[in-house]
Structures are given as C-alpha cells and as structure tokens.
C-alpha cells in the first residue's frame, strides 16, 4: 500500500508539472491560472472517478499531501521551466509515467469499490486522461485525446493486461509495475513511430 | 416498467449514433474519440441528473446493457455512416426521438426521487439535452442548444404537459407516449418551418 | 443566519444579471440560452462546491427561492439591459458584490461541513468564481479568470482574512462584512489601477 501511495503522489507531482507547462503556449497566464491548470490536470481525473463512483471524501479534500504534491509540481515547473520546455521528450516521458501510474491506481480503486471489470478499466483510463482533458476544455482547446496519437488506448490496453495478470494470480505489486510498463511502452513506441488509431470515417 | 426500460435503451442507441456522427465535421477523430463522443452524448445528461440528485449507482455503472446500447450505436454509425450522413432528416428524427424519450424518463426519475414539479421538468430537459451539450463543449464548439432553433424548449413544454396530464389522472404509459409525441411534434414543426425563440436583446 | 440567507439570495440575483448580460457580445442567444447562462453563473459555483463536499440536496434543488432569485435576475437584465450595458462600471460593482458575498458564504459552508482551513478558502473562492468559469466554457470562451486581472486572488485573500479574524474571535456577522469588504476593495482597486498578478513565464 505504501508503495502505491508514493506512486500516486509522484504521479500527482508529474501531472502538476505537465499542467503548469501546458499554459505556456498562449503566454498570457498569471500564477493563479497556472496553479489552476496544474491542479486540474493532477486531480481532475481522480475527482471525476470519485464523483461517478460516489466515493467520498475526495482524495485532495481528505489528504493535504495531494495538495502539497500539486504545489511541488508548480514550483518545479516554475524553477526549471526553461529546462523542461527545451526537453519536450523529458516532458512526454513524465506525462507517460503519470498516465501509467494513474491508470492502475484508478482501476484498483474502482475495483475495490465494487465496479465490474469493464467499468474498472474505464475508470482507470479516466483517472489518467480526464484531468488533461478538463484542462484542455478550460483552455478552450480541443482536447488532444480526441485527435491525437494513441494515448487513452494505451491506458485501456494496460488496464486489461492488469486484470488478465491478476486473474492468473500475479502478485499485485509486480502486476502494478508490469501493467504500468505496458502502458508506458505502448505510448513511447507509438510516439516514436508516429502511430495512430484508424480514423472512424 | 419494461416498456420504459426498452425506451431508455433505445434512446441510448439513438443518442450514441447521433454522438458518433457529430464527430464527422472535423474529420480528424479516431475510433477512440468517436466512442467518447457517442458515450458522452448518450449518458452525459442522465449522469449529470443523477449527480445533481445524488442518485447512485449511476445507470451506466450499474447496468451493462446501457454500455452495450452505446456500442450498438457506434457500430450502427460506423456501418451505415454514408447512409446516415446523406439523410440528415433521418438523423434529426432519431435525435428527436431521443430527446422525447429521455425527457420523460428523466422527469419520472427525478419525480420518483422526490424532486418537485419545477425541478423534475428541468431534470427531464437536462437528461435530454445535456449529453449533446457536453459533447459540443468537448469538441470546442458553442453548444447548439444556446444558439439554435427550439430544442430544449420543446422538452420543457412536453415535460409540463406530462405533469398536467398526470394531474388529470391519465394512465402513465399513455401519458409517456402522448407527452413524448408533443416534444417530437414541436421539434419537427419548428425545424420544418424554421421557427425560433425570440432573441433576448 | 437570516442576514446571511438574504446575502446569498442577493448574490444569486446579482450573478444571474451578470450571466444574462454575458451573452450579449455574440448577439445570437435566445431567451433559453440567456436563462441557461444566468442560471449557470448564479448556481454553478455552489453546485460544484456541494458535489465536491458531498453536500446534498443541492441548494437550488431544495430551495425554490434560489430559482426565483435567478428569474428575478433574468427579468432585471431584460428590463434594464440598455441601462446596464451602458454602465459597465455598475455591472462590475454588482459582480464584485457577488464574489464578495459568495466567497464568505461558500467558505462558511465548507467549514461547517468539516473541511480544513485550506480547503474552506478554496471552496469559498470556487463558489464565487466557478459559475462564471463554467458559463465561459459553455460559451466557448477562454475563462477570464485564467487570463485577467486579480479576481480569484481577491477571493483567496478575503477568505484568509476571514479565518484570521475568526481566530481572533471577531463576531461572525461583522467578520462577514469586513472580509467581504476586503474582497471588494482589492477587486475595485486592482481594476481601477489596472493591476495584475505577475505572469508565470
């Protein structure tokens, strides 16, 4: 449990950095706006999951460590902004780590609340991608998850993998790492080779 | 009850088709994006209603048939895409059927949860139109319900009619059909004759 | 308590006016759209707060006076539209009154539900600014709170002041007025002298 908690906080820091840096492109956000984006990116997905599953109190209302993790992410983004923005690859790796961690954390939470396998995978994926989606909507952009390379799909595949391995009795901690690695691997490979899902029409 | 359940699932299929086809105009959505739009259009309104009324578990989390209905809608949209998009009238009729069904389903649910008449009509209307509104927001469009012809207003009129007939002791199943038909009739007539509400300013 | 209730209803009227007038700039909204914007602006922030804190029933579902206050605001906006839109300063003062009232109302409610100081200040700020933010998102604008002059920050400062004064044993009604006045003063001074927070990058 403790390792998972550390993973969750680490994922929160990473997503907060990613959210704070997302404001960059328009160049007109003040500290408050940036803090909002960081916060929404980091806790938005988990909040939606908990609202849908009626799981109260919400994590960030109950545990100040989550708030501290968001502030840590904002601070890091501010301090190392020039460094981060030059290294888009680094950023992408952080974000990939974030979705890998949050997918499994969200799936496990939904499962423990009695959701079936399908809903649990969906909740895992939503925990990972909905924060960024809400941020994009608030910034008046079309959310990238609807138009971009394989992103949410990687979370779904990793979530299914977790359930399959769990069925075969794999140790939970090992399963966490293996399934998370699958998500990260799919994301990295598809970005590197510029793969995408087939268009619908 | 059984007839109403079938109506609800049928409305879900219809809205999922409408949501899947809404992605068309930008031409850059992959399968995942389309599935998201279909899902949000079909269950978004009911989800908001249930969050506002504290009614858990959410319908789509509790009943996999709703999920299957969404997938059926996506599949139908994919298979008959060319057919559907050529027949905009057909699409409009499906959507009209959807809002007629969902308005009464939502109103009845709110009423059974103890909401007063005003709130019940409002919840019926929201069940019908909020899914499409959320989809439009996520697609970075101005929601059509704010700028377009009589749409939500038809739901409100039909909801009020349902309550009036119910007060006069009309049989619930007949009332469902009559009030739903009123919504559909208003929508179709106003589209045909291009009527709209007066502008505010 | 009664004075606070009157403040809350007055804040609702004021925000409904502000929401109804926000539709102006695009000039294509009908009565239904305007009513939606007024409603969302007035009750959106409190609704999000209550969803996050699991506080049911929602205020506007439980108390028709809130609904009447929204309608009063819409009516006033319609009747005095030309007058209001010529007096942008008047409008800004109404909106300032609204955020001052709602910040303290929201903070007190969160506190009474057991939230800690940090979360209570955050909930007060959200009660004040999230309605306008949701309206902006639905209108497909970038929410002004992310790009504009000091607005949410004034709410945060006023909320912190309320807690500090409360700690020193200041009478609750006096504290309500003093802290609200601080919020209004910050907002007015920063608008008058065109002050803003430092940019993040």
TrEMBL record, chains A, B, C:
Residues 6-80, 93-166 form the Glycine transporter domain. GO terms for cellular component: plasma membrane. It is found in: Cell membrane. It is a multi-pass membrane protein. It comes from the Bacteria. Pfam families: Gly_transporter. Keywords: Cell membrane, Membrane, Transmembrane, Transmembrane helix. InterPro entries: Gly_transporter. The keyword Transferase does not apply. The chain crosses the membrane at residues 6-23, 30-46, 66-84, 91-107, 119-138, 150-170, 176-195. Belongs to the UPF0126 family. This is Trimeric intracellular cation channel family protein. It comes from Empedobacter tilapiae.
